[in-house]
Write a structure and sequence with these properties.
The protein has about 400 residues and is an alpha+beta fold. About 40% of the residues lie in helices and about 20% in strands. It has 15 helices and 11 strands. The strands form 2 sheets. A 6-stranded mixed sheet has the order 1-2-6-3-5-4, sandwiched between helices. The protein has a 5-stranded mixed sheet with strand order 7-11-8-10-9, with helices on both faces. β4 and β5 (about 85-90) form a beta hairpin.
Amino acid sequence: MIQFEKFLLPNGLRLLVHQDKSTPMAVVNIMYDVGARDENPEQTGFAHLFEHLMFGGSVHIPSYDEPLQRAGGENNAYTTHDLTNYYIQLPSENLEIAFWLESDRMLSLAFNKKSLEVQRKVVCEEFKEHYINKPYGDVWHKMRELAYTSHPYRWMTIGKELAHIENAKLNDVKKFFSKHYCPTNAILVVAGNVSFENVKQLAEKWFGDIPSGEKYIRQISIEPIQQEARSLTVTADVPLDAFYKCWHIYPRLDKRYYIVDLITEVLSGGGSSRLYQKLVKEKKLFSNIGCYHTGSIDAGLLVIEGKLIKGIKMEDALSAVEQEIQIICNELISETELQKVKNKTESMIAFEDMSVMSRANSLAFYELLGDANWMNDELEKYNAVTREAIQQECKKIFKDTNSNTLFYYSKN
């Protein structure tokens, strides 16, 4: 059970405090309720661009990293389709430095053409390195466009196309910042060797006077139910043929999310899983194969992907995957197999909770979902999943009309 206290500042900033006296460190985690799904389809990649811009300095702090390093701290950030998260870890006696840094860039991030050009160049190079020049780098650009027709999950977090970042104007960037990076759209979690009263005082001191901003209300297109199978064939300069297939699943707050999570573990949760045992070890069709889901807040995707052994026909690989899908749809998994994946999930949850930084991030995420207390109920929801529920959902999800397949061929 992760204990925490909660406080709401008058400007709408949600503050959560988790005390852990066993560490000399403190973590300051600030999560903004903005991700790639909140972008203009003609100006994508802005949320990720801001992950970089936020480290470019603010009006009163030209260098973000320098004072933090002097205080013995470290920081990082990440962006998803659903959120943007920034976190600092530092000795707890230097906690106020983190508040100073985070509040100043929320209130007065330094905007100028020079900083935009610097970070634009960094993001463009990242786009080229990981998504244009890297083997298989364009897979999810193509797969998302294939699987989604309306929902903004159809583009990648880094952006739909390079030109959107290359053409980003300073005024557009400022508008995006003022719309999303404000107290009413943020959650501040402080964890570690801290006290609630001290954190509350620091929050009021450093964040209390920041204007609340307007609460952003999403109006996102709901993805229509897929009515027919879709497929795409690509040939590229890659070492091996690869197979990608995905099916639409449920939003993060749907109770069936937990069933889907366990389905992916049954199919691909390690060396003893079904897909690995059958298709890698026994039939030797794939050099590696995996099954996972995108874990999105809105309805995501369940994915099976793998690299084929050289000389194996794509048709044979597809047929073998479909056979394994038919088995899990038509035959109840054993109680032993179900308990094994539940035990593994319990271990993963326990391992994640060991780190103060991970606890802070989880508290912010579940508060973003609706209630930070939900992180304490996760295991119960997994344990409630039955063999019958897994079979029932497999039959619903793995319909051919719900599938999107990408055949990725090597030129060699």
